[in-house]
């Protein structure tokens, strides 16, 4: 395998990290007490030429955990009815089990040794995800214990915006405000934005680096 081909492997692009784009919709801002209502994730792949693309998608409506807090302001904002039977909501444990299975399979296929969360304002989604994992007591968490890729920070650097909708538009991507704050839609837009930034850096000549050394 040539040095160029090695650089174009997903595992080599992000230091053996397997990037997983995630968005979580909640009933508040406190990850220890407030209910998680939706989780969506998109895995990524790199083609033979080194361009990053979306791959597989998972999306779950989540049942509020027992004793969780549901703040009316949060519900009014994201327009999610936690108790609507048509949501087809599942338990946190079932969602995390499915997520771990998907992520670990992707890591194995790509030769990565750790998954990393990609999210817009990643600290929020990271904290809620870690609390869920602790609550449901599933071991062998594939995600890095503290490192994330935050597209809000990347957006500030690349296009001078930090709000997801404004960052997408500044990057030349469409954004439908009527679909915003759906975990599935926000994950899709975040994945598009992250791929655009990674691929833009490549187009500008920033990757691969030191290829002849």
Automatic annotation (TrEMBL):
Cofactor entry: Mg(2+)
Cofactor note: Binds two Mg(2+) per subunit. The active form of the enzyme binds two Mg(2+) ions in its active site. The first Mg(2+) forms only one salt bridge with the protein.
Any one Pfam family match given in the protein's UniProt record, by short name: RNase_T
Residues covered by the Exonuclease domain: 18-203
GO cellular component terms, semicolon-separated: cytosol
Residues at the site labelled Important for substrate binding and specificity: 29, 77, 124, 146
Annotated binding of Mg(2+) 1, by residue: 23
Catalytic residues (UniProt): 181 (proton donor/acceptor)
Keyword entries, A-Z: Exonuclease, Hydrolase, Magnesium, Metal-binding, Nuclease, tRNA processing
Enzyme superclass (EC): hydrolase
Residues holding Mg(2+) 2: 23, 25, 181, 186
Statement: the UniProt record of this protein carries the keyword Metal-binding: yes
Keyword Metal-binding among record annotations: yes
GO biological process: DNA replication proofreading; tRNA processing
Known EC number: 3.1.13.-
Family statement: Belongs to the RNase T family.
Function: Trims short 3' overhangs of a variety of RNA species, leaving a one or two nucleotide 3' overhang. Responsible for the end-turnover of tRNA: specifically removes the terminal AMP residue from uncharged tRNA (tRNA-C-C-A). Also appears to be involved in tRNA biosynthesis.
Name of the molecule in the record: Ribonuclease T
Gene name linked to the record: rnt
């Amino acid at each position: 395998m040539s040095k160029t081909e090695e650089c174009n492997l997903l595992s080599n692009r992000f230091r053996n990290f397997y990037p997983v784009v995630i968005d979580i919709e909640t009933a508040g801002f406190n990850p220890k007490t407030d209910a998680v209502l939706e989780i969506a994730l998109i895995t990524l792949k790199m083609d033979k030429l080194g361009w990053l693309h979306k791959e597989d998608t998972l999306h779950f409506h989540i049942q509020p955990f027992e004793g969780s807090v549901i703040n009316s302001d949060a519900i009014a904002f994201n327009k999610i009815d936690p108790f609507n039977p048509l949501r087809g909501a599942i338990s946190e444990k079932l969602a995390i089990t499915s997520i771990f299975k998907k992520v670990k399979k992707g890591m194995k296929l790509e030769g990565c040794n750790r998954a990393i969360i990609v999210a817009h304002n990643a600290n929020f989604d990271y904290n809620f995800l870690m609390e869920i994992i602790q609550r449901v007591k599933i071991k062998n968490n594939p995600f890095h214990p503290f490192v994330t890729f935050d597209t809000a920070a990347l957006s500030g650097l690349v296009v001078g915006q930090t709000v997801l909708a404004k960052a997408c538009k500044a990057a030349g991507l469409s954004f439908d405000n009527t679909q915003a704050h759906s975990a599935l839609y926000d994950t899709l837009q975040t994945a598009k934005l992250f791929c655009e930034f990674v691929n833009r850096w490549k187009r500008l000549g920033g990757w691969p680096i030191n290829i002849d050394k």
